[in-house]
Amino acid sequence: MTISNDQIALNKTIQDFTLSINKDTVKEGRSFKAFLSSSQQYKSATVYWSLSGKNITSNDLADGQLTGSEVLKKDGSLTKVFDINADCLQEGVETLYVRFFLDPELKDFIGEDSIQIIDTSYDPDECQGNDNNKPYSLSASRNQLKENASLSFNIKNGEPGTKLFFKLSGKNIDKHDLDLNYARIKGKIKIGDSGKASIPLLARNDNRTEGEEGLTFTLFKDKKHKKELSSITIPILDTSLETDDTSPTKSPKPNGEQQVWSDKDPKGSWFTLSPSRTEIRENTSTRTRLDSNAPEGTKLSYKIRGEGIDQNDFDLNYARMNGRVELNSNGVAFIPHLLRNDNKTEGIEELTIDLFRNDNPNSLVASTTVPVLDTSIQVDPSQPPSPAPEPDQSQPTWGGGTAEGTWFTLSPSRSEFEEGEKSTTRIDSDAFPGTVVYWELSGNGITVDDLDLEAGSSGMNGTETISRNGFGQIRHIFKVDDTIEGDENVNITLYRDQSKTERLAGSSFTLLDGAVTAEPNKNSLNEGKKMKFKVFANGLPAGTNLYWDISGININQGDFDTRPIEGSKTLDATQKFQLNFEIKKDLFTEGTEYYRLSVYSDPQKTVLVGQSEDVTIFDTSTSRVATYDLITSASSVEEGNGFKVKIKTNKVTPGTAVYWKASGGVTENDLINETTGDALGGPAILDADGNAIMQFDTIKDRFTEGLETFSVQAFTDSDYLNPVGNSVSVDILDTSTTPVATYDLITSSSSVEEGKGFKVKIKTNNIDPGTAIYWRASGTASAQDLINETTGDVLGGPAILDVDGNAIMQFDTIKDRFTEGLETFSVQAFTDSDYLNPVGTIVSVDILDTSTGF
Question: What is the DSSP code string of 694-726?
């Protein structure tokens, strides 16, 4: 037989590609991944795929697509996720074939693999009303719904143009379970021209521990909900942990009336905007989610407005005052903003995002408003509000997410850090979870010697795997190096590839030299009074000379009886010193003044290494100034005993509200305010003598907490921006003993063969049932090697303790066709979702390779 040149070329092309699937079986309602690899010869090439098999139809796929196309990465690879539909048809096990081609006609074949679809439609009762051929049949885009996730209820086989009504119900289900910018407890529907309609739902994390809830969607002909057409029920998995610090929250009031929900529309007939936060603090980020029934590729524009809101409120590496968005195949896009701390006291501001068709300001389609909580305090006029730094790249068009990500941003948690501190640089993107990016640290004089690797700091470069919502974090800990070298600029750069050929984002922050802190014992005082500063220079060696001065607006030597107001100190072995000052009671009417202590490393005072907060001087030269004193009845009490806090004022009108706030290690579980009911802060009303007395009773609990301190500071305003008087403290002496919490990790087997399963048990003592224990896997085993049948999280996540204080996870290993050798799957438990506090011992299971390859 003669083989043609075309056949030889085709065979060679097939050898250039490798196709594999991450599992042998997939259940209805679940997903699987197909991995296609080649070489850079095919970078950015378009490939075409098809799905087929006996009895396989478009109803077997969640998106209804049996063919499609994708673009290869620059290394010639592709990861494609396929979602299998739970169609409620009892078909038995089906074999699905996945094939890839180089041409749209599907002739230039390059690879094939198969997977078995496991039928989960066993119970006819669960599928009642979901017959695909039944009029007004209902289905859900997910088999179950987690809080903070979305789904859509889909109607098909309806009469076009028919107006219908829906209602949501279930045990413990109320409007506070829902983001009310989407479907609410009840609403209206209009069947589209295709006989279909989709009703989107977004479940909130309401900080209320309710357990698993059943959500029922019922479709009615009439507004009074009497004539039922069909219904469907899905479980909501409760991820809220109600604690003493996080009480249940209510759904924010929506921005307008609820949409009439319908089918996909060529232009989009409804759009919703939903911020990821109910309020935004400066130095925090928010993502506004855009949902719609518009088709993929629809372009829209947004604009920010609000009194006092301008571009200096934003980190311009994120979304700006206006920009553009493009919808993905689900009609979704995300607009990310990062609010800056701009050193400008503005109070609470209302930030509104308006969404328009194209750039037409008269075509408003949606709007949402969220409050911005001001954390900036501009005390010194010599420190004006800071403008937003110019970004180093143009603003992208914000989309709904891609496998590789079309945009990335880097945002350090602060603009400057001191030696000895931890820094966190946040990655935001629209990349899918699992995307790996590469980062590098640089800067003049910045080396690995600046990093505390023994304390767990990352190095000068590394990788970060993008998690949910396109998020990642890079953490560093900087050493106190006993060297005076001045402030340094640290650059951090993000790349797509290990060779650093494609830069994704960049940012920088300042590393302040030394670790000098200056703490005043009073925040304010009257003329004629005394105060002191304590200066701590941890990390600087004994014998170091430090230089200091007092400065402020209109502040000079004449304001102090203490002389001089500048000088130097040589550090001894304690690495600290104290400076005492007495304010002069002069005869000049100067008004309120502010001063601060600054510490330098050089006699010329050009290298600032530490600075105190501002101290307020009240002018008493023309009239007696209102004074505030805080007094406690005891400096310390044992648990179970009480004490009083007295706010004593002079020249303050009786009936005035003086606001107070607590700090220290005490929580509202440790004491009760018998006078006002506010344990950690609130208003106290002055009596006829200008005083307010509060009775506190401490709670004698059973927890060993050690010494706890309850400190109180008074303020004149409800925003707690203007402190007055001295801060007072009471030590609460712990008399309790608490059983020690223990954690043990146990595996059912030390090794298993491919295709076999094993269990990992997290066993605890003295831990409350329902507590989330976080775990993370390490070793050579990957997400393609096994399945977590219990939680679905293969390489890490939360495990909820049962009534016995245990959590058991069933893992099934995947019997693949690749010869990989011995692989190890290790598990470590943590008490926190940031994986910073490990507990228990690490356990491991060896996965024995039984494959021989091709």
Answer: EEEEE---S-----EEEEEEEESSTTS-SEEEE
Q: What is the pLDDT of residues 438-452, one digit of tens each?
A: 999 999 888 998 888
Predicted local distance difference test score (pLDDT) of residue 437: 94
Measure the CA angle with vertex 521, ends 518 and 524; round to 5°. Answer: 105
- pLDDT at 854 (0 to 100): 45
The neighbour count for residue 795, using CB atoms within 10 Å, is 18
Whether the CA torsion 646, 650, 656, 657 is positive or negative: it is negative
Q: % helix / strand / coil in the chain, to the nearest 5?
A: 5, 45, 50
| Alpha-carbon dihedral 498, 500, 503, 504, rounded to 10 degrees | 10
Residue 603 has pLDDT above 70, yes or no: yes
pLDDT in the model for residue 685? 93
Q: What is the DSSP letter of 454?
A: G
516-618 and 742-848 share one CATH topology?
yes
Contact 660, 714 (CB under 8 A): yes
**pLDDT surpasses 70 at 132:** no
| pLDDT for res 216 | 92
Query: Which CATH number describes the domain made up of 627-733?
Result: 2.60.40.3450
Q: Which CATH class is domain 264-373?
A: mainly beta
Determine the Cα–Cα distance for residues 327 and 579; give it in Å rounded to an integer. Answer: 61
In the chain the first and final C-alpha atoms are separated, in Å, by 26
- Average pLDDT rounded to a whole number, residues 321-348: 80
Whether residue 114 contacts residue 98, with contact meaning beta carbons closer than 8 Å, is answered with yes
pLDDT of 5 reads 46
| Amino acid identity at 653 | T
pLDDT of residue 622: 56
pLDDT in the model for residue 539: 60
| pLDDT greater than 80 at residue 1 | no
Per-residue pLDDT at 821: 79
pLDDT at 88: 72
Nearest to 272 by CA among 292, 293, 296: 292
- Domain range 128-259, CATH class: mainly beta
The answer to whether 191 and 269 have CB atoms below 8 angstroms apart is no
Count CB atoms within 10 A of the CB of residue 334.
21
- Residue 177 tokens read as 């379970």
CATH match for 5-118 among 3.40.50.300, 2.30.30.40, 2.30.30.100, 2.20.130.20: 2.20.130.20
Instruction: Identify each DSSP E strand in 466-572 by its residue range.
Output: 472-477, 488-495, 503-512, 516-520, 524-526, 530-537, 545-551, 566-570
Q: What stretch of H or E contains 239?
A: none
Q: What is the model's pLDDT at position 469?
A: 72
Question: Which H helix or E strand runs over 190?
Answer: strand 186-190
Residue 275's DSSP bridge partners are 288
CATH node for 742-848: 2.60.40.3450
pLDDT digits (tens, 9 = 90+) for 12-39: 567 788 999 988 888 887 889 999 998 8
To the question of pTM greater than 0.85 for the whole model, the response is: no
254-263 burial, b for 16+ CB within 10 Å, e for fewer? bbeebbebbb
Superfamily of segment(s) 408-512: CalX-beta domain (2.60.40.2030)
**Amino acid identity for residue 4 in this structure:** S
Assign 186 to helix, strand or coil.
strand
Higher per-residue confidence, 365 vs 281: 365
3-state SS assignment for residue 558: helix
Mean pLDDT of 769-784: 89
Q: Is the dihedral of CA 586, 590, 596, 598 positive or negative?
A: negative
* Every domain of the chain and the residues it spans: 5-118, 128-259, 264-373, 408-512, 516-618, 627-733, 742-848
Q: Is 90 exceeded by the pLDDT of residue 165?
A: yes
Going by the DSSP 8-state scheme, the letter that residue 297 receives in this structure is T
Alpha-carbon distance 524 to 723, whole Å? 8
Question: Among all chains, which residue has been given the structure tokens 């003049």?
Answer: 444
C-alpha count within 13 angstroms, C-beta hemisphere, residue 502: 12
